[in-house]
Amino acid sequence: MMEIPLKDLPLYNRDYDGDYPQVAREFKDAIAAVDAVLFVTPEYNRSIPGALKNAIDWASRPYGKNSFARKPSAVIGTSPGKIGTAIGQQHLRSILGFCNSPQMNAVEAYIQFEPGLITDDGEVTNDTPRNVEPSRCASQHGDPAGVIVPHPGFFLPWSDTNA
Ligand SMILES: Cc1cc2nc3c(=O)[nH]c(=O)nc-3n(C[C@H](O)[C@H](O)[C@H](O)COP(=O)(O)O)c2cc1C
């Protein structure tokens, strides 16, 4: 499991398609190097953060070189809101569908983050989310998996009631 950084990507512009900057080449290379991608996202205005959409736009281009085509993916997320990124995750699933990424439909994880939910040792203090090894997600498609986390510091527990 490795994290694929996106914070240094400039705003995507189609003018780059003829000559991608190094940081965007490295981003696409990192996705190409993994068997699957686990997205761990917060929710911004009932969608995904612009930084994450920008990163996906970079990966999806130039035309004909879409990094997510047939690249398995999974989505989980957490935010302080009551619905724990549910709408943001659905938007992300829609985008990944268009990008032709086969998605893991279950397990789902909509985690409302509250102070103290996770201890410094990674222990979950609430009965609702069960702390499952994130590699379980990747294992459905084979390791290693890349992890795209638009907001550093997010954690990776999820509930598996539909597993
Ligand atoms: C611009 C913006 C929009 C947000 N919109 C939502 C939202 O629609 N739903 C939600 O649950 N949380 C929303 N949040 C809260 C973020 O999900 C939250 O900031 C994120 O989980 C990171 O937590 P932190 O700000 O405590 O680091 C929003 C935050 C920002 C900055």
| Range of helix content | 10-25%
* Major sheet: arrangement of strands: 1-5-2-3-4
The secondary structure category is alpha/beta
Shape: elongated
Biggest sheet, open or closed, and with what strands and sense?
Answer: 5 strands, parallel
- Estimated share of beta-strand residues: 5-15%
What does the radius of gyration come to?
16 Å
Let me know the number of strands.
Answer: 5
Would you identify the regions where 5 or more consecutive residues have pLDDT less than 50? 131-135, 152-163
Strand and helix order: EHEHEHEHE
What number is the mean pLDDT?
84
Contiguous helical run count: 4
Query: What is the terminal-to-terminal distance?
Result: 21 Å
| Ions, cofactors and other bound molecules | flavin mononucleotide
Oligomeric nature of the chains: single chain
Helix/strand layout:
Blueprint: E1 2-3, H1 22-32, E2 36-41, H2 50-60, E3 73-79, H3 86-98, E4 110-112, H4 135-139, E5 145-148
Parallel strand pairs: 1-5, 2-3, 2-5, 3-4
The structure holds flavin mononucleotide.
Describe this structure in words.
The protein is α/β, with parallel strands linked by helices and 163 residues long. The protein is 25% helix and 13% strand. The chain is built from 4 helices and 5 strands; from the N terminus they run βαβαβαβαβ. Helix 2 (50-60) links the parallel strand 2 and strand 3 (73-79). The longest helix has 13 residues, at 86-98.
Short key terms for the protein model shown above:
single chain, 163 residues, alpha/beta, five-stranded parallel sheet, 5 strands, 25% helix, 13% strand, binds flavin mononucleotide
